[in-house]
Amino acid sequence: MRKLENRIAIVTGASQGIGKAIALAFGQQGAKVVVTARTTDAIEAVANQLREIGTEALAITADLSVETDIRRIAEETVKRFGGTDILVNNAAIIHPRLDLVDFNTNLWRQVIDVNLIAPALLTKAVLPSMINNRFGMILNISSIGGRKGSKGRSAYRATKAGLISLTESVAAEVKPYGVDVNCICPGGVDTEGFREAFDSQGREQDPKLMRPEEIAELAVFMASDASSAITGAAIDAFGGTNPLFS
User: Fold this and answer.
1) Extended strands (E) in 71-210
2) At what angle do helices 40-52 and 17-28 cross, to 10 degrees?
């Protein structure tokens, strides 16, 4: 038996990077996967990869800064699969290094909308079916940046710290209904977003960066029955970028 056999999973920001790796890992473990992103061609390509490995997949083009799009993700998942067992709030904006005094106000608000408000609203949208079924796993993808502030990273790190607190608060609310809420805090990961935000060549330039698949393996464990003893936790997955090694 695969670890996520016949579970219904939603993964946001699944067209690339960590989200794509998690979606594919879930599919390999038997989940039926709903993948979302803003770009139709890219997210349909991931859905096709999932179908090629033998699992059911649904691609939903959505902008997580738009509340109606967030509700539509939950509604289309219920319409297609009947409910949601697993939600991975992964989508995020990684902004370039900008001191607060130079930060464009609209970009600041967009980072908050996508990185923090959207996970809260999508969680709210899927919780009724999880509570009704007395089962569910919500997994928020925070960051090493959620643990401490840093020059030029104010908006991103504020949202990732907020996501840890959101995880703890909602976990306390829904545990009586059989729903667990946890958080993964990755360190540096070689993703398209990381390369773009930091003008990096990824692992070629910095071998300490992790592969997205390393975070996906942890996500599979957290979404499976094997993690039944864990809730309200923020799991650090820093890899070679762990500050202990600095």
Assistant:
1) 86-89, 136-141, 179-186
2) 20
Contact present, 145 and 109 (Cβ < 8 Å)? no
> Whole-prediction pTM value?
0.96
The CA distance from 240 to 246, in Å, is: 10
Please report the domains of the chain, with CATH numbers, ordered by start residue: 8-240 (3.40.50.720)
Q: For residue 156, indicate whether it is catalytic.
A: yes
| Interval 78-102 mean pLDDT | 96
- Nearest-angstrom CA–CA distance, 10 and 22: 10
Say what angle helices 17-28 and 212-223 make with each other, to 10 degrees.
50
Indicate which residue of 156, 174, 191, 194 is catalytic. Answer: 156
Interhelix angle 118-133/154-174, rounded to 10 degrees, is 20
pLDDT digits (tens, 9 = 90+) for 107-154: 999 999 999 999 999 999 999 999 999 999 999 999 999 999 999 999
